[in-house]
Here is the input.
Amino acid sequence: MQLEMPTPDLQSAPPAEADQSSDGQLSVRNASKFFPSLTGDGQVCVFRDVSLEIANGEFVSIIGHSGCGKSTLLNIIAGFDQPTSGEILVDGKKVHGPGLDRMVVFQSFALMPWMSAFDNVRVAVRSAFPSWDSKQVAQHTTRYLHLMGLTDIGKKMPAHLSGGMRQRVGLARAFAVQPKALLLDEPFAQIDALTRGSIQDELIRMWDVAGATVCMVTHDVDEAILLSDRIALMTNGPEARVAEIVDINIPRPRTREQLIESDDYMRLRTRILRFLIDHNRRPTALDDTAHAMDAYPQSDASVSD
Ligand SMILES: Nc1ncnc2c1ncn2[C@@H]1O[C@H](COP(=O)(O)OP(=O)(O)O)[C@@H](O)[C@H]1O
Ligand SMILES: [Mg+2]
Here is the structure.
């Protein structure tokens, strides 16, 4: 891939305490999740029997309508929540809770507001690599901020940064820990369209340079095709399931200009949109914020939230 900025020498980083082995295989095995029903008389199944194998270094997106359980699934992979049945494995080992081997980037940025951008990344680096001295921690932090195009804003507080800048800090923090897997929950949903494009490019550049298995939840079909090796399509809840997994066999590096000229892209886009329209949103007892998809946007291939 062509890099627009000098690539920091990630290989020369000192050995680290966070789990840095080259593997990062994520396995979701027959995972089901039930929540207590809103009426309090029983349980509602959000998704049932979801299985997904994500290979080391692979970029897989999960796409589906609002309320189908994407964030619930990602939280379970992160270890913030437990599946009602089934299991999550990282490199064959069962996940019992959160860990630095799986970093999550949320739509809402989730930066610590009382810390500068630099310190937000630095504290994560310090906890991932406790034997490093402060100089090593600072160098590593600077390197990852630089990779996300954040060389000059380190001293700024999150409140003084745009949404795009905040999410760059969130991504720099997540990658700087050198996790096995990066879990992204609609990371660009609150960012304007133009900025979103450049952060997507930076994400791919970072993924290309730093590596990591990525599992991204999105409701944006174009974003999913641009970024992913495979896309898992989820049906609506309750009892959602992964109905199809679509291979995105479009060579990398991918540019938006090439994609829109590509027959493969149009074919994949149509297939995924067709799936989403066929699984059009129906209000369910699970989700009282449901809204119909009859206003499905034609020009913007995203699933309305
Ligand atoms: N803690 C919870 N208790 C009860 N229901 C929940 C809880 N978390 C999520 N849900 C329900 O589970 C469903 C899936 O939610 P979510 O995973 O946020 O969907 P998505 O991310 O696909 O929009 C929704 O109907 C939501 O209301
Ligand atoms: Mg969600």
